[in-house]
Input
Amino acid sequence: MDNKVIREKQDLTYLKWDHIRSSSGTAGTFLKAQSVISGVKTYYKLSNYDIEKGIVGHECVNEIIVDRLLDVLGIEHLSYQLIHADIEVDGKSYETWLCASKDFKRTGESKSALDNFYQINRKADESRYDFCVRKGWKKYIETMLAVDYLIMNRDRHGANVEVLRNAKEQTIRVAPLFDHGLSFLCSCYTEREIDAFDIMQDRPCQNFIGSRSTHDNLSLIADKSAVFSKSLTVENKDVLFADLTGILSAKHLNKIWDMLWNRWCEYEKLCNL
Output
């Protein structure tokens, strides 16, 4: 068992939450907070928050599933923990599940959203994809596009990819993959919606690279078989969903697995064309 899920309830009522509107066109508010303890900065975020209903989403659980998926596939990414906690928002108390992650910036690095970095540094008429290739990020971008197809990520806008620069050492790199919560069945809140959800439907998504279709964006990958060095197998299901029983329903978890496995099989077919 990994330590990504902290089921023992924590007292995090001291955190101060900032209101961040969804930038993807998906209705909702996603609250964020941070703490610095013994010099270590930790970032926290909640699932979809409604001022009347409280925390109603399950995006934080999706983060952990994708975190484990990327571990299985051997892809560098920001690691998350899913924490059971008491919190306070606007004077109201809530018992919920939230995500925590460490700062991925190294000492001396500053960060810039990819969309801003592109606008400042692109050549005339250079596409976003071509710009990233010129900067040496082809493998990163192709991996991101493939992962976003597998999980049906609705929210890969230009600030969900970050460029990290160290001016003193004159280094530049792309941040590890992060922020995958608006994926899988993020729009489903009832058993009926889960039953009706089409796992292979190509839903419109906000993608900074490519089009609004995660499926069509796979055409940007010249060698699809070279993207993943490891494979997803049916045995990985237990790894992905370890310790999530009771946090999401069995029906919900099984539908996520069906979605991921069927999309993986479809991707493998595309690799063999």
About this structure: Confidence is low (pLDDT under 50) at residues 22-26.
